[in-house]
Design brief:
By secondary structure, the chain is of the alpha+beta class. The termini are far apart. The radius of gyration is 27 Å and the shape is elongated. The chain contains 14 helices and seven strands. Helix 3 packs antiparallel against helix 4, helix 3 packs across helix 6 and helix 4 packs across helix 5.
Length: 415
C-alpha cells in the first residue's frame, strides 16, 4: 500500500500522545510522507523531520530539523530528502554532510582546535561540558562537513533541533560555541553566519532563583541556629534539609519507614518515594554521619510516630511555612530561604571543582527531561553521591567551627 503524502491539514492535526488513528501513544510516534521521510511527533508536542535510509548495508536515520510551517515545512523537508538521495547516489553518507575538497578542514576539526585552544583558560569541568554539547548536538548534523560549506540554514537547523528537545538555553550556548568556531578558522573564505540568526531562536525562560547564603555567611547562620532552642524539632528539620540538600516538602513529609540501615553509616540511606518527588521519580539520599546524628536526636522526639516532623495537633505534618518563619525569626527574612540552601550546596560543590556536574545534579534530584534521561536510575552514581554529601557535611562543620571561633575572638576583644 502506497504511503499517503503529508498535507498541511494533516500536520496541523497531529497531537502528542495520540496518533492519527486516535490510539493513545505513550512516547514518540512517526507519520510517513514517503521515500523514508517522516515526522517524529514527541510527547512534548514538538515535530521533528527525519529521513530513514540505508548506507553501507546499515539502516540509518538523518535528522532534518524541527518542523516549522514557514521555514522548514513539507516543501523544505522534501527538498532535503532529494538532496540526501543525490548524496547517496554519489556514494556518500548524507549524515556526513558535504565532501571536503581542496584540503579544507571539517567543522569538527576546526572545533577540536578551537576547544583545545580555549581549554587552557577554562576549568576542566566547563571544558568537558562544552565538548559534550558539541558531540551530542552539533557534530551529528554538521561535524563532518567542510567548514566553508556550512550555511546559515544548516546552523539554524542544528539550533532548532536542540530547541525541539526543550532545552532552549543549550541552543543559545551552542550558538555561541558555533560562532566561536567559525571565527577561530584561519580560512579567509569562512565567515560566521550566526549574527544573521539574531532573533530566530526562542528566548530562554527567566529563572527565578531562591535567595541563598554565600559560603562565608553559612557559618554565622549555623551558630545562630544552634543557639536557638525554642523549637528543637524545627531546628533539626532545617539542619536535615541543609545536610541532605533536599527540598522542604521532601523533608517535612518524610516518614521513618523511608530510612534504611541507620545503624550502618557506610550504607545508611533515605529512600524518598516517587509519589513525593517533584519529578515523580524515586530519589535516594545517602546519609552522612552528621545527618545520622540529626536523625538520632529527632528519634527521641518523634520516633514513636509515622512522620519525622508531625504537625502540632498530632495529625499530618509540619507546616510548609514553619522552617521559613524560623529563618525570619533568626534575622534572615531578606537573606535566604530554606530552598536557597540547595543553591548554596550547588554553588559551593561546583566551585570546588571536585565533583562531576552529574553527581551534583543527582544529589539535588535534578533529572533532565530529554530522552537520554528516560531510563533514570535512582541509584546512579550513588557511591560518589555519598562521598559528596559527606564532604558537604564536613564543609558545614568547618564553617560552623570557624564562625564560633570568630565569635569567641570578637567577644574577647570587646571585653
Amino acid at each position: 500500500m502506497a504511503t499517503k503524502p503529508l498535507t498541511q491539514s494533516r500536520i496541523d492535526a497531529l497531537k502528542p500522545g495520540v496518533n492519527e488513528r486516535g490510539e493513545v501513544v505513550p512516547g514518540d510516534y512517526k507519520v510517513a510522507d514517503g521515500g523514508g521521510l517522516h515526522l517524529l511527533v514527541k510527547p512534548n508536542g514538538s515535530k521533528l523531520w527525519r529521513l530513514a535510509y540505508r548506507f553501507g548495508g546499515k539502516q540509518k536515520t538523518l535528522a532534518l530539523g524541527v518542523y516549522d510551517r514557514d521555514t522548514n515545512g513539507v516543501i523544505e523537508a522534501r527538498a532535503k530528502r532529494e538532496a540526501a538521495k543525490l548524496t547517496l547516489k554519489a556514494g556518500l553518507d548524507p549524515a556526513g554532510g558535504g565532501m571536503v575538497t581542496d584540503g579544507q578542514a571539517t567543522f569538527e576539526q576546526v572545533a577540536r582546535a578551537w576547544h583545545e585552544h580555549n581549554a587552557a583558560e577554562w576549568s576542566e569541568k566547563y571544558a568537558s561540558i562544552v565538548w559534550s554539547r558539541l558531540e551530542d548536538y552539533v557534530f551529528p548534523m554538521i561535524g563532518r562537513r567542510a567548514i566553508g560549506a556550512v550555511k546559515r540554514s544548516d546552523v539554524l537547523a542544528v539550533l532548532r533541533e536542540i530547541e525541539g528537545r526543550g532545552i532552549i538555553d543549550t541552543a543559545h550556548r551552542c550558538k555561541q560555541y558555533i560562532s566561536g568556531i567559525f571565527r577561530f578558522s584561519d580560512d579567509d573564505s569562512v565567515t560566521d553566519p550566526t549574527p544573521m540568526l539574531k532573533g530566530r531562536l526562542k528566548t530562554p525562560p527567566r529563572v527565578q532563583h531562591h535567595k541563598s547564603l554565600k559560603a562565608a555567611e553559612i557559618g554565622a547562620f549555623l551558630v545562630k541556629l544552634d543557639a536557638d532552642t525554642s523549637e528543637p524539632q524545627t531546628r533539626l528539620a532545617i539542619l536535615l534539609t541543609i545536610l541532605t540538600a533536599a527540598r522542604t516538602a521532601e523533608v517535612i513529609g518524610a516518614k521513618w519507614e523511608e530510612f534504611e540501615d541507620l545503624k550502618y553509616p557506610k550504607r545508611a540511606l533515605w529512600r524518598v518515594p516517587a509519589s513525593r518527588m517533584k519529578a515523580r521519580r524515586e530519589h535516594l539520599v545517602p546519609l552522612s554521619p552528621q545527618a545520622l546524628a540529626v536523625l538520632a536526636d529527632l528519634r527521641k522526639i518523634t520516633g514513636r510516630g509515622d512522620y519525622l516532623f508531625p504537625g502540632r495537633s498530632g495529625h499530618g505534618t509540619m507546616s510548609n511555612n514553619t522552617m521559613i518563619f524560623r529563618l525570619y525569626a533568626l534575622g534572615y527574612r531578606d537573606k535566604s530561604t530554606v530552598h536557597g540552601f540547595r543553591g548554596s550546596f550547588s554553588t559551593i560543590a561546583n566551585e570546588s571543582g571536585l565533583w562531576a556536574p552529574d553527581v551534583i545534579e543527582l544529589c539535588l534530584a535534578h533529572v533532565e527531561g530529554n530522552s537520554a534521561r528516560a531510563a533514570y536510575n535512582s541509584a546512579e552514581h550513588l557511591p560518589k553521591r555519598r562521598e559528596l554529601l559527606a564532604w558537604w557535611a564536613q564543609q558545614i562543620d568547618a564553617k560552623r567551627q570557624k564562625a564560633r571561633q570568630e565569635q569567641r575572638i570578637r567577644h574577647f576583644l570587646e571585653n
